[in-house]
């Protein structure tokens, strides 16, 4: 594994963060070793507050002590800074690169566990179903019939969406709605199965059962806060 020494890498994240999962995926795909610091978002470390003083959010990647924030900015950086390690995530062709980035302008997958009213939930589900329909088109266009958005191997869009996969599955289970459906979005449904079975996904993504428990707890806390406001 690369990393360590001059390439010292430290990741500040929290176990359930889908954005942190993106960075973990990129680090694992490049075969980079890194120090992991688990953040408690209710009691953030001084290092996190200082490293991401604008948003104070995880993930933050420190490379030789310099802080990088925003998951996809970090993934981009890892791809370029460690170009020699592992397969490239972004295509070398400029046009193809632009297409991959285009698909990530929208924050496709909404986290629905924080929705408080039925109307909010119904609207969220509607938006998610529209989003996955667009992503089905994206997958056809990016993969050109190959297994991943990146073609034969996992690329930038795969990392961006793959990082959110366990949360999408958790939303499906909690809401009783199938977003990645074999009939409506056959390409995406097959992609999700393929992605989840990769060793990097197993290493970088959070445990489904633990995410479900965490989401239920957050939902309970949100409902409690709402009741307290009434
Ligand atoms: N757009 C950011 C989103 C990061 C984000 O929302 N992180 C959450 C955890 S999943 C966080 O740190 N929340 C703490 C807070 O909002 O105080 C990214 O892609 O990195």
TrEMBL record:
Function: Is involved in the conjugation of reduced glutathione to a wide number of exogenous and endogenous hydrophobic electrophiles.
Protein name, as recorded: Glutathione S-transferase
GO biological process: glutathione metabolic process
Location within or outside the cell: Cytoplasm, Cytosol
Entry keyword annotation includes Transferase: yes
GO CC term, one of those recorded: cytosol
Annotated GST N-terminal domain residues: 7-86
Lineage: Eukaryota, Viridiplantae, Streptophyta, Embryophyta, Tracheophyta
Organism, as annotated: Digitaria exilis
Protein family: Belongs to the GST superfamily. Tau family.
GST C-terminal domain sequence ranges: 93-219
EC numbers for this chain: 2.5.1.18
């Amino acid at each position: 594994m690369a990393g360590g020494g001059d390439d010292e890498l430290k990741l500040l994240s929290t176990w359930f963060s889908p954005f942190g999962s993106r960075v973990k995926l990129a680090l694992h795909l490049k075969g980079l070793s890194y120090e992991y610091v688990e953040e408690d978002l209710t009691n953030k470390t001084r290092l996190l507050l200082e490293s991401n003083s604008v948003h104070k959010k995880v993930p933050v990647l420190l490379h030789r002590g310099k802080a990088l924030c925003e998951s996809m900015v970090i993934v981009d950086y890892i791809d370029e800074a460690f170009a020699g390690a592992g397969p490239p995530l972004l295509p070398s062709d400029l046009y193809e690169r632009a297409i991959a980035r285009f698909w990530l302008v929208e924050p496709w997958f909404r986290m629905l566990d924080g929705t408080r009213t039925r109307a909010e939930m119904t609207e969220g589900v509607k938006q998610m179903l529209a989003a996955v329909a667009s992503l089905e088109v994206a997958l056809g266009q990016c993969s050109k019939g190959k297994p991943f958005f990146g073609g034969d191997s996992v690329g930038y869009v795969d990392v961006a969406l793959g990082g959110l996969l366990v949360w999408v599955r958790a939303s499906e289970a909690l809401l009783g709605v199938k977003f990645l459906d074999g009939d409506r979005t056959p390409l995406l449904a097959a992609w999700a199965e393929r992605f989840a079975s990769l060793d990097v996904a197993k290493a970088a993504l959070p445990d489904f059962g633990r995410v479900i428990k965490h989401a239920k707890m957050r939902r309970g806390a949100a409902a409690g806060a709402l009741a307290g406001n009434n």
